[in-house]
Prior knowledge:
Oligomer: single chain
Radius of gyration: 18 Å
Strand content: over 45%
Order of helices and strands: HEEHEEEEEE
Number of helices: 2
Amino acid sequence: xxxxxxxxxxxxxxxxxxxxxxxxxxxxxxxxxxxxxxxxxxxxxxxxxxxxxxxxxxxxxxxxxxxxxxxxxxxxxxxxxxxxxxxxxxxxxxxxxxxxxxxxxxxxxxxxxxxxxxxxxxxxxxxxxxxxxxxxxxxxxxxxxxxxxxxxxxxxxxxxxxxxxxxxxx
Length: 170
């Protein structure tokens, strides 16, 4: 009986450990007087780590800015007629700017970010960020806290997420 319980517990813990390691923030952020500074490294998923930080630290809402070297950056241009993003990815680029916000939607962090990247020939691309994976070097994200919790909701007039300026605003 003890062996079965131990085996079951080991399997459960192994599953939790592998899920947590995908977004492990140990040693990747520090508190600042105005919020947090996060430094991510090769292979880190920027959006997932920001979401995880929001959950761990129970961030009510925040503004975010960032820079760094990306293995891959995926942007989307929103097609309002079809209500979907048309994605385009760029590899091995410098993230010249990331600007965005952290809010909440349906009990989960909701990150809205835009950015600009440049390649080795200094050609640039930018738009709504759908995904960012850190390349060699690092990515630095500054999180500036806001005191009130803000929520996103789908505006029926446009069929897209918007930020409510009052808690639960719709």
